[in-house]
Design goal:
binds magnesium ion, binds adenosine-5'-diphosphate, 12 helices, alpha/beta, Helicase, Ruva Protein, domain 3
């Protein structure tokens, strides 16, 4: 992202001085597992492009196959064009773009949508940025079937999985945004939870952290309500800190939940 921004800044300065400039294609590909920040970065990128004058509006319109492809003949073109219209002046983010291509069926309506997208990527470059997002291996395969898509995309960014200590740092950031404070001794418990959760199905990086934070806040509320409203501690008065605190016990509930579950049968949040 930094490299792209640097190029755009330099290009702008060159243009001001009357040098030859050629903005490379701004179309982008974001690859990585769920919850690695692809959508978040697309939104930020839109804002950056708008601020720098490379995008008129900088908003992001999120589209999946269902938004672009119809069920019946003649329905696909209008659907795809409608989404493109909404995204004009900003970014059209096609999530799991590879679902547009069906290798087993060359009459799949997705093909029609792909052709329209390729067309606008070529002819409306100056007013629409198309970004595709999804798993890296599937995206590579998609590009191999649709080389025209690959050649129109100037920027490929891969989003690695977060490491467990990065996910702990993210929990700290999220707590701050939500105006909570994680007790210092609670981080170890959260780290333990994340390490266990990473081994289970449907782990999704920072999105799993977001879900864990939601559950921890719920546990904090239950704990605080019980302490003051039910048991009447401190004459029933709780402090501001009580309202903000996420404690080790609030995360321990999540750890216990994994430890006590029949892993074969359960799907975890
Ligand atoms: N580095 C990060 N710091 C803080 N929050 C993050 C970070 N990366 C992702 N998130 C959060 O994780 C969630 C999932 O991110 P998202 O961008 O939707 O992932 P993706 O599109 O790759 O599935 C969002 O709530 C987002 O705010
Ligand atoms: Mg996403």
């Amino acid at each position: 992202v930094k490299e792209i921004a640097a190029l755009l800044v330099l290009d702008k300065m060159r243009r001001k001085l009357g040098f030859e400039t050629s903005v490379p294609s701004l179309h982008m590909s974001f690859t990585g597992a769920p919850g690695t920040g692809k959508t978040t970065v697309a939104v930020r990128m839109g804002q950056i492009l708008a601020k720098m004058g490379y995008s008129r509006r900088g908003h992001v319109v999120l589209a999946t196959r269902d938004d672009l492809v119809g069920q019946y003949v003649g329905h696909t073109a209008p659907k795809t064009k409608e989404m493109i219209k909404k995204a004009m002046g900003g970014v059209l983010l096609v999530d799991e773009a590879y679902y547009l291509y069906n290798a087993a069926n060359d009459r799949d309506y997705g093909q029609e949508s792909i052709e329209i997208l390729l067309n606008v990527m070529e002819n409306n470059q100056d007013d629409l940025v198309v970004a595709v997002a999804g798993y890296k291996d599937r995206m590579d395969k998609f590009f191999s079937y649709i080389p025209g898509m690959m050649s129109r995309i100037g920027n490929h960014i891969d989003f690695p999985n977060y490491k467990s200590d990065e996910l702990v740092q993210i929990s700290e950031v999220m707590a701050r945004e939500l105006e909570y404070e994680i007790d210092p001794d609670a981080y170890g418990v959260f780290h333990n939870y994340i390490q266990k959760r990473m081994e289970l199905p449907f782990f999704s990086n920072a999105r799993t952290v977001r879900n864990a934070m939601d559950r921890a806040r719920m546990n904090s509320a239950i704990r605080t309500f019980d302490k003051f409203a039910i048991r009447g501690e401190n004459g029933g008065f709780c402090t501001v800190n009580d309202l903000k605190s996420i404690s080790a016990a609030d995360f321990q509930v999540l750890v216990d939940d994994i430890d006590n579950a029949d892993v074969e049968k359960r799907i975890f949040a």
